Amino acid sequence: MKKNLLYLIAGFLVVFGLNSCNQLFIEEDPENSFSENFEVLWNTMDQRYTFFEYKKINWDSIYTVYQPLVAGSKSEKEFFDHMAAMLKTLKDGHVNLRTPFDISRYQPYLDAAPNYSFEVLERNYLGNYRITGFLLNQEIDGVGYIHYRSFVNRILDSELDEVINRFENLPGVIIDVRNNGGGNPENGLKMARRMISEPTHIYSYQTKNGLGKDDLGELKKILLEPEADKPKFKGRIVVLTNRGVFSAGSYFAAYIRGIPNAILMGDKSGGGSGVPAGHDLPNGWYFNFSSTIGYTVDGINFENGVPVDIEVNMSPDDISKGKDPILERAIQYIKTGN
Prior knowledge:
The protein is of the alpha/beta class. The chain has helices spanning 2-15, 34-48, 52-55, 59-71, 76-88, 118-124, 157-166, 185-193, 248-256, 316-320, 325-336; strands spanning 96-98, 130-132, 135-140, 143-148, 172-176, 200-207, 220-224, 236-241, 262-266, 276-280, 286-290, 292-295, 310-311.
């Protein structure tokens, strides 16, 4: 189990430039032309990318469109633009092309509902909140509240101890990860270990293991061990998510669906269930791609997001009035169970 968790963590760290040891190097150095670099990228994706079938993408037809464009490129920047446009057709936040001058990216959150405002939280709910490491925390109307902005930011055991102990006599805690774009999944695992008292199935995954578009290995279930002799979250747990939650954030949302005393509220996460792998191009550029498929404990492929248990909307009008209906609904649930 630890090996599987380490695989997940290592994969995410590749995306954030923290670890490149699992790069897949080509055996020969092809001619360093735009066309040859295109062929290496297209063929690697063709053989190793996991979501063609799920997303109903005809990768051969994509080749037909972009190969002539790439071959006719007049500069590196034009070549990059064509390659980036091709990768964007996959609609996958874990797919990008990295160069010395730019990184391609897919930004679906730009079309997401504006259902979050930290300014509203800070002005109208948080008061004189504490900052414990990267965990903003406060008691709001008799309920514990933790705000975690990015899974890039490391969480220490001592910080979790402090925050958990602060809320130990309250009926529950809200963990707000709205607009959290991801980072290191170990931070989510640290929090999840404090929510369980026995080994718990938190997600499953499959790895691409053949050249066919749907050649996948056996489904592997991940069991999370509780943190022994450490303070645990007590009472009801509500995790707030929205379409701005990606990658390690979506994995954290997936964990919550497997934890009995915890629920998800707000809007479904943005997605990103594939653990990223990487590959070099002959010209020295580098690209990432999803190499696995992640599933919630109830079998949902969460590449396009983890559904919430209770959907709550927050409109621009709410924001203009300084209201956060999602937070208020979470407080109600913690206090009443409904």
